[in-house]
Design brief:
By secondary structure, the protein is α+β, with helices and mostly antiparallel strands. 29% of the residues lie in helices and 19% in strands. Helix 6 packs antiparallel against helix 8. ATP binds at residue 149. GO terms for molecular function: ATP binding; protein serine/threonine kinase activity; protein tyrosine kinase activity.
C-alpha cells in the first residue's frame, strides 16, 4: 500500500495530512510513489518508480566501454574513402587539360565494387591476344550488346598502364567514324584495364576462311578502309598494325580496330613493330619518317594476301621479294586492281599514294555506286 499524504483545505490554507492507510513494507522503496514534502518548499516533487521511466530500458555501460578513447573524426571519414586512379595525359591531344597534381590521384568517397559486374552481363569470349581477352557482353542498363576488352594481367606500374592506355587514348582522340570500331568508355578495376567498344560480327581473317572474295567485294572493303586511314592520318595518327585480324565487319561495314600500337605520325611517341608479314622495309630498318605511308603498305599487303588466297610469308626470299615490289600476278583480278595494290606496296614510302590520293583511283570510279 502506498502511503501518500493528502491535502485538506483549512481556512483557505492547503494542508497535507498523513494517510491513515497501512504502510507498504513489501514494495521496494525505489518502486514506490512518494512525495518529497517540505512545508517551506512550494515545489514538492513526485518520485516515480524507475520501472515506469526510460531508465528501465538503458543498460549500464561497462568500464571497458567507458575507458575507450574517442576516435578522431578525420580517421572515421578516411576509413570510407579509397584512392582514385591517377589522370594520365593523352599524348594524342596537344593541350594538357590536367595539372600535374591531378595525375597523382585523389581521394574518392566511392567504394571499390566491380563496375564490370554491376554494369555488364558477360555472355562469351569472342577473342584473345597476347595482352587481352575480348568478351561479348550485355549492358544491364540499356540492354544493348557490346565488346569489352580487358587486360589479361595486372598493370601494376605506370609504364604498363601507359602502354595499355595507348589504344584508349587514340580512339578517344579520333572521335566517331563509320569505318573505325567505336569506343564507348574505359576504366581500371583491380589493376586491370577494361575497354567498352562496339561489337562486330567477325573480322576479315575469319571471313577469308569462310568465303572467297571477289574483286568487287575487296574493292568495296578497300574503299571503306581507305576512308578510315584518311580519317586517322588527318588526326595525326598512324595505326601501324593494319592486317586482316584487325579489320572488323559489322552489318556489312568494314572497320579498323585494335589501336594498341597506334602512334603519332610525327614520331613523338615510342614505336613498336606490328606483324612482320605486313610491315614495310623502312619500319624494319627503323626509318620512321613516313609512318602514314607505312599504313598504306600494310593495307596493300592485306588485300594482296586476300586476293592471292594464301598467307603472306614472315621471312625468306619471298618475303624479301615482296618488299622489293616483286608481286605475283593475281588471276581473276583486273589490271586496275593489281596496279593499285602494287602502288600501295611500293618499296619507297614517298612513292606510295596517301589515303586521300588512293580514294581518287580509277578502280573506285568504275565500281558500283555503293562503293562510291
Amino acid at each position: 500500500m502506498v502511503c501518500i499524504p493528502f491535502p485538506m483545505m483549512r481556512l483557505g490554507v492547503l494542508v497535507f495530512l498523513p494517510s491513515h492507510s497501512t504502510a507498504d513494507y513489501v514494495t521496494p522503496v525505489e518502486q514506490q510513489f512518494t512525495v518529497d514534502f517540505n512545508a517551506s518548499d512550494k515545489n514538492a516533487v513526485l518520485n516515480v518508480p524507475v520501472g515506469l521511466t526510460p531508465l528501465r530500458s538503458k543498460r549500464p555501460r561497462s568500464d571497458e566501454y567507458l575507458n575507450q578513447e574517442a576516435e578522431n573524426a578525420k580517421t572515421l571519414s578516411l576509413r570510407q574513402r579509397v584512392m582514385s586512379p591517377p589522370c594520365f595525359r593523352n599524348p594524342f591531344v596537344n593541350s594538357d587539360v590536367f595539372p600535374e597534381r591531378a595525375r597523382q590521384g585523389c581521394v574518392s568517397a566511392f567504394g571499390s565494387s566491380s563496375r564490370y559486374r554491376e554494369e555488364f552481363h558477360q555472355i562469351k569470349e569472342i577473342g584473345r591476344g597476347d595482352f587481352s581477352y575480348v568478351y561479348e557482353v550485355l549492358k544491364r542498363l540499356d540492354g544493348c550488346l557490346y565488346a569489352v576488352k580487358h587486360s589479361n594481367r595486372r598493370l601494376l606500374n605506370e609504364g604498363d598502364r601507359r602502354k595499355a592506355l595507348r589504344e584508349v587514348q587514340a580512339l578517344s582522340c579520333l572521335g566517331y567514324h563509320e569505318n573505325v570500331v567505336r569506343y564507348f568508355s574505359s576504366w581500371f578495376e583491380n589493376d586491370f584495364l577494361y575497354i567498352q567498344m562496339e561489337l562486330c560480327e567477325t573480322n576479315l581473317r575469319d571471313e577469308s576462311l569462310a568465303w572467297t572474295f571477289t574483286e568487287k567485294k575487296l574493292t568495296e572493303a578497300m574503299f571503306q578502309l581507305l576512308n578510315a586511314l584518311k580519317h586517322l592520318h588527318s588526326h595525326g595518327l598512324a595505326h601501324l598494325d593494319v592486317k586482316p585480324d584487325n579489320i572488323y565487319i559489322r552489318k556489312g561495314v568494314y572497320k579498323i580496330g585494335d589501336f594498341g600500337l597506334a602512334c603519332r605520325i610525327d614520331g613523338a611517341i615510342s614505336i613498336e613493330d606490328g606483324d612482320s608479314r605486313y610491315l614495310p622495309m623502312e619500319l624494319i630498318n627503323d626509318d620512321h619518317s613516313h609512318l602514314d605511308k607505312a599504313d598504306m603498305f600494310s593495307l596493300g599487303a592485306t588485300f594482296y594476301e586476300l586476293a592471292r588466297r594464301s598467307p603472306l610469308p614472315a621471312s625468306g626470299s619471298q618475303y624479301q621479294a615482296i618488299r622489293q615490289g616483286k608481286l605475283a600476278l593475281l588471276p581473276g583480278f583486273s589490271l586496275v586492281f593489281q596496279s593499285l595494290i602494287k602502288s600501295l606496296m611500293h618499296p619507297a614510302a614517298k612513292n606510295r599514294p596517301s589515303a586521300a590520293q588512293a580514294l581518287k583511283n580509277a578502280l573506285f570510279k568504275k565500281s558500283s555506286s555503293k562503293v562510291l
